[in-house]
TrEMBL record, chain A:
Keyword Ubl conjugation: no
Organism lineage: Bacteria, Pseudomonadati, Pseudomonadota, Alphaproteobacteria, Rhodobacterales
Cellular-component GO terms for this entry: plasma membrane
Family: Belongs to the binding-protein-dependent transport system permease family.
Superkingdom of origin: Bacteria
ABC transmembrane type-1 domain location: 178-373
Keyword Glycosyltransferase: no
Keywords of the record: Membrane, Transmembrane, Transmembrane helix, Transport
InterPro entries: ABC_transp_perm/SBD, MetI-like, MetI-like_sf
Compartments where found: Cell membrane
Name this protein carries in UniProt: ABC transporter permease
UniProtKB/TrEMBL annotation, chain B:
Database matches in Pfam families: BPD_transp_1
Organism: Roseivivax halodurans JCM 10272
Stated name of the protein: ABC transporter
Keywords from the named record: Membrane, Transmembrane, Transmembrane helix, Transport
Main location (coarse class): membrane
Length: 388, 250
């Protein structure tokens, strides 16, 4: 159903409504120090009227361009214009509010900023999904957007925002915890792949092994993550204390090892069950053809079955990676490090900025991992979806 | 599926979890070997029963609200008038589920303060997406011939929705609800880090005092709850799917 040019996009109306509400809400909050409750400051209140009007015009302009139907490129451009206006206004508001305040004063994004950010990113997502980019185009868009984000963070435009102040106060430990978090998420994924792929191939061949393995692994998934991390502490403490050489490998009751093993156990089910499902879905005709060509079992597995099963297996890796990045936060509670350290420190001190310093990178990392894995799954798909 | 050993096993697990919740003292000898002292084998600061009840209540309220809202949205999006929202909804359902549950919980605290409130909201928000995604799939994959037949019988739009579409979509929707409930049961334990009263309190007390007995006690009860509820949903889905003649989706 093609609408006449000039009519209004229903999704655009929704984004404009969210954005309009966002402009009415407090734009930023100003606090005397990092713990006290803040007071809301409106979008136009902090900066000189001319600058405020310019930025608000950019935000509104972006949302209005978003009202167009069947024009994905201008709508994408509109979201960028709006985001630029939002960034400029946030940066200017923070600078103006802190200019004549005491050293300990903080400016944090308020409900208004978050609502506008939501409206504009939804607009961007809606425009991009209408463009239906292929895998390589999506990868290019992702790289450009991440590059823009890195440039904004490096430019110091947001340097006056409270979470960035929190970051500067602990830049070294932030780097260390980032590496820790990545090690937890990717290391346990690697270990799960090393164990899970062979186990999945064996389960595909032997029905009895499959009947025993898959229910056991799904039972592991029902254990609440908090308990799983907790149970690993005494088990690995015991291993570290009794098995010779384990301690020198860094295996101990608290810290990295229990978090790593807990994540590994959660990772096994998606890896194994997707390997089995992927191999099960290899078309019978392809297997027969490979056998007819005189391939050995090992050759068939390596050159025919695994390549055809790859997209489904990668979909399993996607589940694991996104899940691990999120669950690794809980490691912060048992001294395992990672972004959870900041989240739980922040919760203990009721310091919102510190919670955000841990939570925002986690969310970003999870989203990027999800998008990258989706691209890989699409790029490795060899047989058209409908015949798979 | 409903064989005798299966029924007996379910009965035993149910009896075990009821006993763990109502008479925790009886399990002192079981947990004593992993407790620092035999006196500290059982969590006594708050009654386990009240923690379990408020844990289940939080999950039930959040998931019920999430199901109602998500199914309503999915119905709206699957009508002809909602077509413009379909690609967007798919993106939101896909990207939204990559938000880590812990991060959703942590982000709810600054907005809502400590206690059961942020936990309820986080569980609700996180519970929306699996139900929404499954409900969208369910409405999009209804057999076309059946829908045409319903229209041919002269059913109105509302009648078609209530008498044909919803009953047929129900098994797939329930799969989404099951995912939501199992995730919520686990996430609610983490809610105790922001002072919600759930069974996570027992686990966290164990973590803080190096008492494995508490960790096991809390973890065991939540784990058994999850297994039982998961199983009940699967049985319900299979029964409904058989009744409506749809192939099971596990």
């Amino acid at each position: 159903m093609k609408r006449a040019a000039g009519s209004v996009s229903p999704t655009g109306l929704l984004f404009a409504a969210i954005g309009g509400a966002g402009l009415a809400l407090p734009f930023v909050t100003f606090r005397e120090n990092r713990i006290v409750l803040g007071e809301g400051v409106a979008a136009w209140a902090a900066v000189p009227p001319g600058a405020a009007a310019f930025c608000i015009a950019a935000i509104l302009g972006g949302l209005i361009i978003g009202l167009a139907t069947d024009r994905p490129w201008p709508r994408f451009g509109g979201s960028l214009v709006g985001l630029a206006g939002l960034l400029a206004l946030l940066s200017a508001s923070a600078e103006a509010l802190l200019a004549d305040a005491l050293d300990l004063a903080r400016v944090a994004p308020g409900a208004g900023v978050w609502m506008l950010l939501l409206a504009l990113t939804l607009l961007m997502a809606d425009a991009l999904s209408a463009l239906k980019p292929g895998p390589s185009a999506r990868a290019a868009i992702l790289v450009v957007l991440l590059g823009a984000l890195a440039a904004v963070l490096a430019s110091g435009l947001l340097a006056d925002i409270s979470t960035m102040q929190e970051y500067r106060a602990r830049a070294a430990s932030f780097r260390a915890e980032t590496i820790r978090h990545l090690w937890l998420a990717f290391g346990s994924l690697g270990a799960a792949a090393l164990i899970g792929f062979p186990l999945g191939i064996l389960c595909h061949r032997r029905a009895s092994l499959r009947a025993a393995t898959l229910p056991t692994l799904s039972l592991l998934q029902t254990i609440p993550s908090l308990a799983m991390f907790g149970i690993m502490i005494p088990i690995l403490g015991w291993v570290g204390a009794t098995v010779p050489g384990a301690r020198s490998l860094g295996i101990a009751g608290i810290g990295f090892a229990p978090a790593f093993v807990a994540l590994l156990l959660y990772s096994l089910l998606p890896v194994v069950s997707n390997t089995v499902a992927g191999l099960d879905a290899v078309p019978r005709a392809a297997q027969e053809a490979a056998r007819g060509m005189g391939m050995t079992v090992a050759q068939r597995l390596r050159t025919v079955e695994l390549p055809l099963a790859l997209p489904v297996m990668l979909a399993g890796i996607r589940i694991v990676l996104v899940q691990n990045i999120g669950l690794a936060v809980i490691a912060g509670l048992i001294g395992g490090g990672g972004y959870g350290t900041f989240v739980f420190q922040g919760l203990n001190q009721t310091a919102t900025d510190l919670i955000l310093l841990g939570a925002l990178p986690t969310v970003l990392l999870a989203i990027v991992a999800g998008v990258v894995m989706d691209i890989l799954v699409d790029a490795t798909r060899k047989i058209p979806e409908e015949s798979a | 599926m409903t064989s005798w050993p299966g029924l007996v096993l379910r009965g035993v697990i149910l009896a075990l979890v009821v006993a763990l919740v109502t008479v925790p003292e009886a399990f002192r000898p079981v947990f004593a070997p992993v407790a620092p002292t035999p006196q500290q084998a059982i969590y006594t600061r708050t009654s386990i029963l009240s923690l379990a009840m408020s844990h289940l209540a939080l999950v039930a309220i959040a998931c019920a609200a999430a199901t109602i809202v998500a199914v309503t949205l999915a119905i709206a999006v699957s009508r002809p008038g909602g077509a413009a929202f379909r690609p967007l909804s798919r993106t939101i359902a896909n990207v939204g589920q990559t938000f880590p549950p812990v991060a959703v919980l942590a982000l709810a605290v600054p907005a809502l303060g400590f206690g059961s409130g942020p936990t309820l909201v986080a569980l609700f928000l996180y519970g929306l997406l699996p139900v929404f995604e499954n409900a969208m799939t369910a409405f999009a994959t209804l057999p076309k011939t059946t829908l045409d037949a319903a229209r041919g019988m002269g059913l109105t739009r509302a009648q078609r929705l209530w008498q044909v579409e919803l009953p047929l979509a129900l098994p797939v929707i329930l799969t989404g609800v099951r995912l939501s409930v199992v995730i919520s049961l686990g996430t609610a334990t983490i809610g105790s880090t922001v002072a919600a009263s759930t069974l996570g309190e027992v686990i966290i007390a164990g973590l803080l005092t190096n008492n494995t007995a508490f960790v096991l006690q809390g973890g065991l009860i939540v784990g058994l709850f999850a297994v039982l509820i998961y199983d009940a949903f699967v049985l319900l889905e299979v029964w409904l799917a058989r009744r409506t003649g749809r192939a099971t989706t596990r």
